[in-house]
Design a protein that fits this description.
Distance between the termini: 24 Å
Radius of gyration: 26 Å
GO molecular function, one term: protein transmembrane transporter activity
Number of strands: 10
Organism: Thelephora terrestris
Strand order of the largest sheet: 3-9-8
Pfam families: MAS20, SET
Largest sheet: 3 strands, antiparallel
Bound molecules: S-adenosylmethionine
Membrane topology: Single-pass membrane protein
Protein name: SET domain-containing protein
Helix content: 40-55%
């Protein structure tokens, strides 16, 4: 087993559910003596059984590739324990089962490895556990555990777009390999012009700064709110208003409480903050500082990113709550797969200022020590780069005319993907499925928010379309202005695309325009190098991001202070 494979595998496993669970383990480890005793006992058992075992590599029977695949397939279908308590019990049982079977001889190597692998799947710091396994599990069994992990990652990666997006949306994501890998959103049904292809709720949304200040739109769903109907929250650090108590509750649950509220973010049974002196004052100070920063900065992205981080925490904490007690607004996608979705999205290099990093990290740590790890190292930069790159502008009925003109340099202006123009939007939202829409200067769909009057997106067909057609929207306003020639309009939209999304548009219209006589020879010559765009281009990042994030996660898991029982086991 190569270390790199272990790191990749562990990165994926870490990413799929470490956060609140790790915090919970840490809390239990520090506070629960019977839990500590159990771990120590377990450590001794591992040592004893592995000391007795001197299995000879050469005589050990290794499973065939087919046996391994069949066993893994069955294992992948097993339901995983949900609550921390269930996970804890499951983990202990599987480790002890693995030991017992390993002591039965080589014929039991595969069942033993499967048990150890099951334990690993629920463990909050898998890299630590791998290190422990390497030292304590018989070599042939350890090798099978690693082979199982390898295969697990491979099958998960290959089958990812078989189950996402949900088939009921009527679209699929296709991965095109040539000339460079890209993903496109393709219709899975026939539609007529004007039909809604699918609707999608945002993962997170934010109002433009000036509208947040006026309190005329719902802070959660972005619906227009008249003053007499506004629900005004008790605790708030902006001029938030809600269109209903339902929106207020959802907002509080998803992010508002963690970022700007006072209540514990953990369920009442686990309240590690309750008895820490000064915790409430500390939290208040961290939140005030962050809110002041957001107000003076006047940008949308820092709050959008903070809300996304809060939703990740919400998803993890939700797993600790029995299903019947969870909020009813569970999103359409499996929240535990959020990291998987994010890893697959493209992004542009974005640097978050040290101030912004520190302020948000303080808010997270003050809500629950350990949460700040969520955005450690350059994960904050990457997350912001991804949200910035994929977000869509929200506007109703073609957009507004009263947005203040930004004072920033052109390269610093926040841009969202919207055919109506960022300058006409009321807010910004981030969607999982619609993130995959490519741009075309002659688009065949448009995102609309008029159907609901909220941030829920309806994707509307602009012409009759057939199953198998690629869906494309306009990221920018592609219509020529009243005084704009076709050539100028083409140059403007291509410059906007290059500036905001760092690519030279290759849509059918741009390609067709190149061969028409109305585009000047000089501009055509720019096609290859795109030096007519006046903006340096770079490939949007994706695959490197996956590798980097995984490597960092694995590194963090190895170098972190003790948060999990492996640390005790490894003593
Ligand atoms: C928001 S993502 C859309 C999903 C993306 N196709 C993927 O592979 O993940 C935007 C990226 O798609 C590519 N793209 C979208 N529309 C394009 C176009 N008209 N011409 C060239 N590249 C385009 C660009 O490389 C850009 O990095």
């Amino acid at each position: 087993m190569k270390t790199s494979t272990a790191v990749t595998v562990a990165g994926v496993t870490v990413a799929t559910g470490v956060l609140a669970y790790a915090v919970y383990f840490d809390y239990k480890r520090r506070n629960d003596t019977s839990f500590r005793k159990k771990l120590r006992k377990d450590k001794k058992k591992v040592e004893k059984s592995t000391a007795q075992l001197q299995v000879d590599d050469a005589t050990a029977s290794a499973p065939t590739a087919e046996q391994l695949r069949t066993a893994l397939l069955a294992l992948q279908k097993e339901p995983l324990p949900v609550s921390p308590q269930e996970k804890e019990g499951y983990f202990m049982n599987q480790v002890s089962l693995g030991e017992q079977m390993a002591s039965q001889g080589p014929a039991f190597n595969l069942p033993s490895a499967l048990a150890f692998y099951r334990a690993l799947r629920v463990y909050p710091s898998p890299v630590e556990l791998i290190v422990l396994y390497e030292k304590s599990v018989p070599t042939p069994v350890f090798k099978i555990v690693m082979d199982l992990m390898n295969l697990d990652v491979q099958t998960r990666a290959a089958g990812y777009y078989d189950s996402f997006p949900d088939r009921s949306m009527g679209v699929v994501i296709k991965v095109i390999q040539e000339p460079t890998e890209k993903k496109i959103l393709v219709l899975d049904k026939d539609v007529k012009a004007g039909e809604v292809i699918f609707t999608e709720k945002p993962v997170v949304a934010v109002l433009d700064h000036d509208l947040q200040e006026t309190g005329t739109y719902c802070t959660y769903c972005l619906r227009s709110v008249s003053p007499q109907d506004a629900v005004i929250p008790e605790v708030d650090r902006f001029n938030s208003v809600y269109c209903s108590i339902d929106c207020e509750a959802r907002s509080k649950h998803q992010s508002q409480n963690l970022l700007f509220g006072r209540e514990s973010v953990l369920p009442p049974a686990l309240l590690p903050l309750g008895d820490i002196p000064g915790a409430a004052e500390n939290r208040n100070a961290a939140q005030t500082a962050f809110a002041n920063y957001l107000k003076s900065d006047g940008k949308s992205l820092p709050l959008l990113v903070a809300r996304f981080a809060a939703r990740q925490v919400e998803a993890e904490i939700n797993k600790m709550i029995p299903p019947e007690m969870r909020a009813s607004d569970a999103p359409a996608i499996d929240e535990s797969a959020q990291y998987d979705h994010m890893e697959r999205l493209r992004y542009v290099d974005t640097e978050v200022t040290q101030d912004e990093k520190t302020l948000l990290s303080n808010v997270l740590a003050a809500a629950l020590p350990g949460l700040e790890r969520l955005l450690g190292d350059d994960r904050h930069d990457i997350l912001k780069g991804k949200i910035r790159y994929n977000s869509i502008g929200i506007s109703f009925n073609g957009g507004r005319d009263d947005k203040p003109t930004p004072k920033d340099r052109p390269e610093d202006i926040e841009r969202t993907r919207t055919p109506y123009g960022t300058s006409r939007q009321i807010g910004t939202a981030f969607f999982y499925v619609s993130s995959y829409l490519a741009h075309s200067c002659d688009p065949n769909v448009r995102p609309s928010f008029d159907e609901t009057g909220t941030s829920e997106l309806s994707l509307i067909a602009l012409r009759d379309l057939k199953k198998g057609d690629e869906l494309t929207m306009a990221y920018v306003d592609v219509a020529p202005g009243p005084d704009e020639s076709a050539v100028d309009a083409r140059r403007r939209r291509r410059q906007e695309l290059a500036r905001g999304w760092k690519f030279a548009c290759e849509c059918s219209k741009c390609v067709a325009d190149l061969v028409t006589t109305e585009i000047s020879g000089a501009e055509s010559a720019g096609k290859d190098g795109d030096n007519d765009l006046g903006v340096p281009l770079e490939e949007a990042r994706v695959e490197e991001a996956v590798a980097r994030v995984e490597a960092q996660l694995a590194q963090v898991a190895v170098s972190e202070p003790p948060v999990a029982p492996a640390q005790e086991l490894a003593l």
